[in-house]
Amino acid sequence: MEDCQKASNLNSIDLSSSDILTSVSLLKRACMDCGFFYVTNHGISEEFMDQVFTQSKNFFHLPLEEKMKLLRNEKHRGYTPFLDELLDPANQLQGDQKEGFYIGIELPEDDPEAQRTFYGPNLWPDSDILPGWRQTMEKYHQQAMEVVKKTARLIALALDLDANFFEQPEMLGKPIAVLRLLHYPGQVSEPAKGIYGAGAHSDYGLITLLATDAVSGLQICKDKDAKPRVWEDVEPLKGAFVVNLGDMLERWSNGIFRSTLHRVLGNGQERYSIPYFVEPSHDCVVECLPTCQSRENPPKFPRVKCEAYLLQRYKDTHADLSLYNKA
Fold first, then answer.
1. Which domains does the chain have, with CATH numbers?
2. Which residues form the Fe2OG dioxygenase domain (predicted)?
3. CA-to-CA distance for 85 and 88, rounded, in angstroms?
4. How far apart are CA 166 and CA 269, in angstroms?
5. Residue 240: which residues within 8 A CB-CB, separation 6 or more?
6. Which of 89, 91, 66, 83 is closest to 319 using CA atoms?
7. Maximum Cα interatomic distance, the chain, rounded to a whole number of Å
8. Is residue 98 within 8 Å of 85, Cβ to Cβ?
């Protein structure tokens, strides 16, 4: 049975608004409906975003041999080649038709915390080849986290929690935050043949902040069990981020807030996007929030430690590094 497609109409949250009640109400409806919404007036200038996208393109325009020198490591830092990631093995003939680059929170190797699974030094292109590249990405990493924190405060209020709930040390106080540059080179996806820009998946963590260029491609499916599935186009909104909730927030909220299936279909146009994935700390235990359970609505998900959950999800979706010839 063929999937259906239509346009989506997402709520838009103004992060500069003083009308907190309206912002929380709009966000709560979006989180319960599909877990996707726009945020505007977020504090990052369009000029700087243009700079970030330009630097992203500069990297992906390098020869493959240069990019492969920065092949992702066991800490999920660095370059991910075409077809490396397989997000929907039940429906995909091959890996995603995209390439990417992971940038995590930078810690020097001699920092004890750098031994943790998702911490440590990043891999960086040579500054002679891409001058200013590292500085741009590190600045964006910091600014994006501030947008996430503003958004997380509204999410906390929507869950009847203290506004600063997610800023506790074990959550966004010591987060696992991964910036990922993505490049879709312009192939046309063919779902009937199992060929996708990015296969259908939900994100793993707390919240994802997505910056996109003006090229369409992102789709969401509010009901993954429907036959046929209905896919809705999420159009780029100039000056806005697309925000979506991850699986951990769905677990915290006992399924009240939703981590929704999404995918990318290539339409023949080259496309660049920059998701910023934010998870709580390695040791954070994700379990149903007191405000989201009752005798009639007991916890639906088992407790899970963030580090173990993320490791399994990455292992399930990425090619084994031993498949690459590093010689």
1. 4-319 (2.60.120.330)
2. 175-280
3. 9
4. 38
5. 12, 38, 39, 40, 42
6. 83
7. 62
8. yes
- Using a cut of 0.90, tell me whether the model's pTM lies above it: yes
Is 273 in a helix, a strand, or coil?
strand
Structure tokens at 66: 């240069």
Give the pLDDT confidence score for residue 79 in this predicted structure. Answer: 97
CB 196 within 8 A of CB 92: yes
165 pLDDT exceeds 80? yes
Number of Cβ atoms within 10 Å of the Cβ of 275: 20
Average pLDDT of every residue of the chain: 92
Residue 249's alpha-carbon distances to 22, 83, 159, 259, in angstroms, are 21, 28, 11, 7
Give every CB contact of residue 274 below 8 A, 6+ residues apart in sequence: 52, 53, 56, 140, 179, 180, 181, 182, 210, 211, 212
pLDDT tens per residue across span 233-267: 999 999 999 999 999 999 999 999 999 999 999 99
pLDDT tens digits for range 28-73: 999 999 999 999 999 999 999 999 999 999 999 999 999 999 999 9
